[in-house]
Write a structure and sequence with these properties.
Number of helices: 9
Number of domains: 1
CATH class: Alpha Beta
Shape: globular
Oligomer: single chain
Radius of gyration: 17 Å
CATH topology: Rossmann fold
Strand content: 15-25%
Distance between the termini: 32 Å
Structural class: alpha/beta
Bound molecules: NADPH dihydro-nicotinamide-adenine-dinucleotide phosphate
């Protein structure tokens, strides 16, 4: 389905990003994984991707830094020749009620989730325009649509991604570049691993399908958006949340 294509997955070393990287590779795509560091998990991810028979490499880069993003993206283009699919998945949380959020908690979340997504997209957009083809998938969150107490910084960053997605879709549709957002609900990863059993039960009670999602649930939707099966879809925000926000 994606044979010969190259995908960049930010935050692809673990969690949802790793499931996305595997799914795209299982369908034939070469994968450039961007993560903060060369961790054991990142190396394991790259090994597993290579075992699927595709080209895969890790790029250690803090997407908060425009300079680091520019040089990592240049390196990716030099190594892979071209990029066809960009999945902006890297993200962090620094949860607290508003008065208790430090300036750094606000800056970090906006810098990584929103500005990082913009930096990485900006680094690849000229290449997409030159070849008159590109596919961008941004990982937002249902809390970017519905809000959430204790997550004012995070939900604002995720709502920002939705505005960014729609603007990129409008600005580049005529160049045959699509840009969509995925809004996951609660997905079982390291990010949600810190929840207590009580919090987990409380969350489940708000989800019509009655359970947390898996990274694969998100990856299946990303594969659809990355493929030609979604060729007439752009500027869209698609939830994968077990009905949490209906
Ligand atoms: P994880 O915490 O499991 O993984 C996050 C990944 O992002 C890691 O690979 C990490 O790199 C990378 N990353 C973090 N900061 C940076 C940075 N500054 N520069 C480069 N890479 C960075 O997260 P999830 O898999 O749970 O979440 C993935 C995305 O999905 C996020 O955008 C999140 O907001 C979103 N999401 C998650 C939900 C959930 O319930 N889990 C729900 C809704 C949305 P490293 O491995 O080096 O640390």
């Amino acid at each position: 389905m994606l044979n010969g294509k190259t995908a960049v997955v930010t935050g692809g070393a673990r969690g949802i990003g790793r499931a996305i990287a595997y799914k795209l590779a299982e369908n034939g795509a070469n994968v450039a994984v961007v993560a903060t560091r060369d961790s054991e998990k990142a190396r394991e991810t790259i090994d597993n991707l290579q075992k699927l028979g595709v080209k895969a490499r890790l790029y250690a880069c803090d997407i908060k830094s425009a300079e680091e993003v520019t040089s990592a993206c240049e390196e990716i283009l030099a190594d892979f020749g071209q990029v066809d699919i960009l999945v902006n998945n890297a993200g962090i949380t620094r949860d607290n009620i508003l008065p208790s959020l430090s300036a750094m908690d606000i800056d970090d979340v906006i810098d990584v989730n929103l500005k990082g997504t913009m930096f990485v997209t900006k680094a690849f957009i000229r290449q997409f325009v030159r070849k008159r083809a590109g596919n961008i998938i941004n990982i937002s969150s249902v809390v970017g649509l519905m809000g959430n107490k204790g997550q004012t910084n995070y939900s604002a960053s995720k709502a920002g991604i939705i505005g960014f997605t729609k603007s990129v879709a409008r600005e580049y549709g005529r160049k045959n570049i699509r840009c969509n957002a995925v809004a996951p609900g609660y997905i079982a990863t390291d990010m949600t691993g810190a929840l207590s059993d009580e919090q987990r039960d409380q969350i489940k009670s708000q989800i019509p399908l009655g359970s947390l999602g898996s990274p694969d649930n998100v990856a299946d939707l990303v594969l659809f958006l990355a493929s030609d099966s979604s060729s007439y879809i752009t500027g869209e925000v698609i939830k994968v949340d077990g009905g949490m926000y209906v």
